[in-house]
Amino acid sequence: MRKELSNRSWKDKGIGTISNTLSLFIITIMILALLFFLYPIKTLQATDFQTGNYLKSWRVRNRDTFGIEYIHSVEKSPVLENYIIDGKDIILLDTYFQSFGAGLPATTPYSFEKTEKGFRVYDINEEMEDLVYRVGSAERNHRLIFKNKEYKLLDFSEHKMGVKLSVKNMIRLSYIVKEGGLF
């Protein structure tokens, strides 16, 4: 009887092959999912300048551009500053404004032109060490413009808060939890 049992090959009969294959498949899927969710992604992060507390983030890629638009506190006219992501750096490309005055350039070492909407300073290409905006009241209307969407800074920060923008790697799962998007 013993010899008879040992000659039988249960694995050749299909018993166990399905469960072993299914288990291996499930483990492979779980490992891939774990790697997917733990893989770091590049984000543009907004944090409280004083405390470093996380406020909001956007998934970015190298060479993505974004703008910050606001109403100038003294001149009460719109200002738009455009930036590009280069690795972990944020580089100021150009700025648009409608009038000269306190805090707005009257002269500049950069290229300058008058447009239908006001003035443009361009070819700036200056790396921003600390890109911080002091969020004003609702009438100052600080907005981040990214991928044709506008995000009011007051929607995720407080009046008079310094909002620091920087490029950081973030675990994808953390991004999903905080921002609700897979990609």
Give your account of this protein's structure:
By secondary structure, the protein is α+β, with helices and mostly antiparallel strands. It has two domains: 37 residues; 140 residues, no CATH class. It is 20% helix and 40% strand. The chain has three helices and twelve strands, in the order ααββββββββββββα. The strands form two sheets. Strands 3, 4, 5, 6, 7, 8, 10 and 11 form an eight-stranded antiparallel sheet that branches. A four-stranded antiparallel sheet has the order 2-1-12-9. The longest helix has 22 residues. It is elongated, with a radius of gyration of 27 Å. The model has no long low-confidence stretch (mean pLDDT 86).
Label this structure with key terms.
8-stranded antiparallel β-sheet, 4-stranded antiparallel β-sheet, 183 residues, 20% helix, 2 domains
Task: Summarize it.
The protein contains three helices and twelve strands. With 183 residues, it is α+β, with helices and mostly antiparallel strands. The strands form two sheets. Strands 3, 4, 5, 6, 7, 8, 10 and 11 form an eight-stranded antiparallel β-sheet that branches.
